[in-house]
Amino acid sequence: MANLTSMSGFLLMGFSDNHELQILHALLFLVTYLLALTGNLLIITVTSLDHRLQSPMYYFLKHLSLLDLCFISVTVPQSIANSLMNNGYISHGQCILQVFFFIALASSEVAILTVMSYDRYAAICRPLQYETIMNSYACRQAVTAVWLAGGLSGLMHTAVNFSIPLCGERVIHQFFCDVPQMLKLACSHEFINEIAVAAFTTSAAFICLVSIVLSYIRIFSTVLRIPSAEGRTKVFTTCLPHLFVVTFFLSTAGFEFLHPPSDSQSAMDLMFSIFYTVIPPTLNPVIYSLRNEAMKAALRKVLSKGICPEKDIFKSHF
């Protein structure tokens, strides 16, 4: 293990001090990471190539999969390497990069989920204006705003978090450089700026959550007036997986970021951190493709190498 008194980086405590359990953790994380990698790459591939999946809904889904792929790659490979080497040390520079990309991608994910909920609202509640509202220019602008907002959030958190003086041993009771856990290393009353930035980003996330809830209230009120049972089923099949993803991601991340960090390693902290860092990127490809007939048909075409690219990105809509 690293010398705590002389190291300039941090020590990630991870899941266990037992090397056999660390190997088991590394194997489980490796399997999960490969599943997430495969699933998200497949979605990115089929939504890029299949002409039937060129609507705004699938355009945003492609970017969600790209975000998921990057998001899980920020924390899991480093954790696997640390477990296999039985050494939780992470350098100061690596920790800075991990915090920046983690916050940036998490913020972008919240933003893209908000955009996706508005897209479904426009498609279901305002179908006659849908092509005008969600035209190709508007979709590109929305995605650009998503990535820029995430980058700005990551930059603010990173700049403020690593300007705080640290006192005591640089031990982080997590498997990655987690901001709430890092705050307890700060010298007394020196993290007020980070609290201010966290309050700002939490407020932004709350606005996104309210927007998502309002969109789905309108969606479900409209769906319940649809006379066709088949039509209601089709809409629910599309919307309910998205609502599940939003609820699961925001509730678990909110619990971890809003509750006060403990002075020692907590099994609940580790469990909830897995819930919002590992589980959503792994399950999203399954959730969005398992009950979507168009996605399943496109996946079968990709696997059988029978797909032909099309140039018109917004040729059709859901």
Nutshell version of this structure?
The chain has 318 residues and is mainly alpha-helical. The chain has helices spanning 19-49, 56-84, 92-125, 130-133, 136-161, 179-183, 192-223, 229-258, 267-277, 279-290, 293-303, and strands spanning 10-12, 89-90, 171-172.
Can you give keywords for this protein?
71% helix, mainly alpha, 318 residues, 3 strands, Rhopdopsin 7-helix transmembrane proteins, disordered C terminus, three-stranded mixed β-sheet
Give an overview in words:
This protein has 318 residues and is mainly α. The chain has a single domain (10-303), classed as Rhopdopsin 7-helix transmembrane proteins (Up-down Bundle), CATH 1.20.1070. The chain is 71% helix and 2% strand. It is built from eleven helices and three strands, in the order βααβαααβαααααα. It has helices at 19-49, 56-84, 92-125, 130-133, 136-161, 179-183, 192-223, 229-258, 267-277, 279-290, 293-303; strands at 10-12, 89-90, 171-172. Strands 2-1-3 form a three-stranded mixed beta sheet.
Subunit arrangement of the protein: single chain
Total number of helices: 11
Whole-number count of domains: 1
- State the end-to-end distance: 54 Å
Give the full name of the CATH homologous superfamily: Rhodopsin 7-helix transmembrane proteins
Tell me, briefly, the overall form: globular
Largest sheet: 3 strands, mixed
* Sheet/helix structural class: mainly alpha
Widest sheet: strand ordering: 2-1-3
Give the CATH topology: Rhopdopsin 7-helix transmembrane proteins
The averaged pLDDT comes out at 82
